[in-house]
Structures are given as structure tokens and as C-alpha cells.
């Protein structure tokens, strides 16, 4: 009887400590698309638009400083981060600052926050738009 009680509490202790933190190893994923808008140097005239092929896309766990991973979008500007555990994340790309008072060459992030709440969840993000000149 004494050993079964000890075994019972040991199992409770072991399984209560198995909460998975956000990151890789799960079975959920996030997908999205990068779209590039190419302007003249003053950002006053749109020269063209196209999929963001080979654009860098970053995945960040909420509350962390460094990205968990960086990938490149495919030829259609699509990207996917698979095998994620539930948790809060951010996906971001870098774009040129298109505001009227921007210093030329300054870049800023375009960020989308999302949360995975269950296993096998697929999160589809809005299109991330990159401004270029």
C-alpha cells in the first residue's frame, strides 16, 4: 500500500511537469504570404507589385528577444513554420520605412502576432506587405 501511494504521487509529479513551452516539437503550424510593393525612391509612385520570393521571414516566441527561426519565402512568397507547440508567437519581415519623414534606408518590422491554442491547429496569417524602392 505504501509503495502504491508513492508511485501514484510520483506519476502525478512527473506528468504535471510535462507542460510544453512554445517552440518546435508540436504538431501545429502557421502559414502566410509576403507581398512586395515596389515604389520610386520618394514612395510616391507604385512601380510594381509581386510575390516576395526569397524574402526572409522570422518566427519569434512571445517574450523572447531572438527569433526562434528564420526561413525564406518560396517563389510565390509563401512561407510556413510547422511543428509548433501551443503558445504565443510573432512572425515578422523587414520593410523600408515608407512614411513621408523617413530617413532613406531605414527599415522597420512588419509584425503579426498570433496564438496557437490547440494541437493540429493551422494559423493562416494576413499577407505581410514589404515596401521597397
Instruction: Kindly provide the radius of gyration, computed on alpha-carbon positions and rounded to a whole number of angstroms.
Output: 21 Å
Describe the biggest sheet?
Answer: 5 strands, mixed
Number of strands: 9
CATH fourth-tier homologous superfamily? Immunoglobulins
Describe this structure in words.
With 133 residues, this protein is mainly beta. β3 and β4 (69-72) form a beta hairpin. Strands 1, 2, 5, 8 and 9 form a five-stranded mixed beta sheet that branches. A four-stranded antiparallel beta sheet has the order 4-3-6-7, with no helix packed on it. It is elongated. The model is unreliable at 7-16 (pLDDT under 50). It is 11% helix and 50% strand. The chain has one domain (22-132): Immunoglobulin-like (Sandwich).
Fold topology:
Elements: H1 2-16, E1 24-39, E2 46-51, E3 56-61, E4 69-72, E5 78-84, E6 87-96, E7 107-116, E8 122-124, E9 128-132
Relevant terms:
133 residues; mainly beta; Immunoglobulin-like; five-stranded mixed sheet; four-stranded antiparallel sheet; elongated
In short:
The protein is built from one helix and nine strands, in the order αβββββββββ. By secondary structure, the protein is mainly β.
